[in-house]
Amino acid sequence: MSILVDNDSRVVVQGLTGKEGMFHAEQMMAYGTKVVAGVTPGKGGQECLGLPVFNTVSEAVIATRANTSLIFVPAAMAADAACEASAAGIKVVVVISEHIPVMDMVRAKAFLKERGTHMIGPNCPGIISPGQCKVGIMPGYIHRQGSVGVISRSGTLTYEVVDQLTKAGLGQSTCIGIGGDPIIGLHFVDLLKMFAEDKDTEAVCLIGEIGGDAEEKAASYIKTSRYPKPVFGFVAGLTAPPGKRMGHAGAIISGSKGRASDKIAAMEAAGMHVVKELGKFGQQVARVIAG
Q: Which residue among the candidates 24, 118, 143, 248 is catalytic per the annotation?
C-alpha cells in the first residue's frame, strides 16, 4: 500500500507545454505514472508528449478522469492553478512552483481545505510511491518499494535519506517532500496520521530543518498519540546562526524560535529515534528495524 498516490492515480500536468513541465512529465511517464493530460490556457486541442492538452482542468477531468494534479505554473498564477484543480474535483494537488506570494497561498490553502483537497507543497519535490506512481521532480531510480515512509521539508535531504535507505536494503512505501515555504499544504502531523493507518508502512522518517515549529508539533503528536510505529528524526541546520535564512523561505531562526537544538530536544522527549549524523541515517534505521 501507500498514501495519497498509487497505481490508480491519473495525473494532469498544469503547465505541461512549458520546458520544466514537459521534461518532468516525460520522466514520470517513463517511471510508469499514468499521466493522462496537460493543461495550458490557450493551447487546448493540441498534443504534447502524445497527451491531449486542455484549456482548463475541468475539461481535462471530464475527458480523462484525472484525479491528481502536478503544477508547473509561474509563481504569480500558481495559487490560482491549485484552486482551479480543486474546483474541478482533483483530490491531490502537488505544487512544484516556488516564490509564490504568501497571501496567495493563505487564500489557496483555505479554498482547498474547504473542498477536501490534499495539497503538497508549494516549493517541493513532490511525492512518490515507489513502483507505483511518481508525481514530481525526484529521481525515481534511487527509490525502492518497501515499508518505510519518508516526510521531509527539504528536497535534497529527501533524496539523500532515500538513497541511504535503499542502499541499506530498506524500501519505501511513500516519500513526500512537503516544501519549505512558510505556508504549505500537508504538514508532518497530517502525514504521520496517514502513515499510522497504512498497514504496509512499518516505520517513518521525518526530516526537518530550522525555522517554524512543525517539528515540535510533530513530536508532540507522536508523544500524545503514543504513535504506533517507530519514527526516525533528523534536523538540518544545527549550526545555523539566528536571522540567517537557509535555502527555504521558512528555514530561518527568529528570536528564540526555530532552533535545531530545540527541535531535537522535542523529538528526543517524544521517544523518537534522533539521527545526529546525516551520513549514518540509513544504517541507524536499518539497525533499529532489525532489532
A: 248
Which CATH number is 111's domain given? 3.40.50.720
pLDDT of residue 256: 47
pTM value? 0.94
- The set of cell numbers assigned to 84 is 482551479
**Which tens digit of pLDDT belongs to each residue from 121-160?**
999 999 999 999 999 999 999 999 999 999 999 888 999 9
Angle between helices 188-197 and 214-224 (to 10 degrees): 30
- Amino acid (1-letter code) at residue 100: I
Question: By residue range, what is the domain housing residue 112?
Answer: 10-120
8 A C-beta contact, residue 227 and residue 188 = no
pLDDT of residue 252: 53
Residue 247 maps to a domain: yes
**143 part of the active site:** no
Q: Where are the extended beta strands (E) located within the chain?
A: 10-14, 34-39, 47-48, 51-54, 68-71, 92-95, 118-120, 126-129, 133-136, 145-152, 172-177, 203-209, 231-236, 273-274
Q: How many domains does the chain have?
A: 2
- Are 162 and 204 in the same domain? yes
The residue ranges of the chain whose pLDDT is under 70 are 239-257
